[in-house]
Amino acid sequence: MKFNKLSISGLWIIEPQVFGDNRGYFCETFKKELFEQNIGKVTFVQENESSSSYGVLRGLHLQRPPYTQAKLVSVALGKVLDVAVDVRTDSPTFGKYEIVELSDQNKRRFFIPRGFLHGFVVLSEKAIFQYKVDNIYNKDSEQGIIYNDPTINVDWQIEPNKMVFSEKDLKLKTLNKQDFYTTNQYQTNL
Description:
Layout: E1 2-5, E2 12-15, E3 19-21, E4 24-26, H1 32-38, E5 46-53, E6 57-63, E7 71-77, E8 79-86, E9 97-103, E10 109-112, E11 116-122, E12 126-133, E13 142-144, H2 167-170, H3 183-188
């Protein structure tokens, strides 16, 4: 496995080594020892999966303390554009984001630590999206920003009229109309 640090502190792309032959392929998608040597100790407590069609945009979301979550995301089928936005108020990259293309072809994993908004848009006809989290979900701790926030200006690479949203996501506010926390507050769950 290759662990590639991104320009925003805490974000990583993990690329598994794929072994293929006439039967198909094999790869390790997660190995605790290597993960901890490169990224650090994270205890994943739940794994989730969603299925979406072309143009579905889910995000940008996070969980507020004490339910804040780190995520390890990947795509089992199809292709998505995955986005992580730094909202750690003490970070020099507050409000900045990274975009990573995840697919069943490149088999990348994207590690997103606590203190980041997360979202993705489906670029293929269908996508099955998987993610491990290190804390349980709590509805009352949901927070997010609107996908087209002008201060962040994410290029989702799809025309807005071809995007599909939940009603909840369309009601999200902009970054500057919300309160966020410091890196330590996200880590310690207040």
